[in-house]
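task queued by scheduler; priority normal; single chain, no ligands, no partner chains; default sampling; output format set to structure tokens
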Amino acid sequence: MLRLICCLFLIGLLAPGKSLIADDVANKDNAPLLDARNDYQQIWGDPTNGLQPAIILGYSAGWDVCINLLAQEDFPGHMWLAISNRVGSRVELWRTNGTQVLSKDADVLNAFHLPKHTTVSEIVQGVHPRNKRGMQWWRLARPTRAQTSAQYDTVWTLQSAFEMSPTNDYVLKISPLIYKVETNEVTAHLVEFPHIAIKLMTDGRAQRIP
């Protein structure tokens, strides 16, 4: 259900056109406070390789996180392949006093050690259970037209990956990752998006910061 809400949220957001996205990215130095308690909130990242990431945040008992990707140009099928962990990104969590919160979560840790160059078969073999391996292709390997969006990773809870205190504010730094498959459809290289820094507040509000 949470995944469906996340996808429907982004589809509704994109309806007016891409000017809203451009404004959101341009205003990151003076970003508004977003209330994630009653509605999911999006924070756009900088585009890379023709894709633009959006971090979708929700807040109830904890922070729910998912990543959507927006195609800025047409793409053929079998071009983008997800990394084989649930967070879909390199994730860092910091306290506002400048100390880092270290994670013991395997997916968070493994994302920092992914090979920059690999093969499609090696990426797919890292997915378990086996029946989910075809789901790694972004948009199920269908050709993609510009201004098409799709959820990239599963919805996950920040508190499942980090030990967090309900009385502390935090800074989340998240760099979405995806493999771009070469035209030979055999080899692939890792694409890392510029990190998105977001201040998370104890009352369920969030704000993008430089």
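post-processing summary
- The longest strand covers residues 170-181.
- Confidence is low (pLDDT under 50) at residues 13-23.
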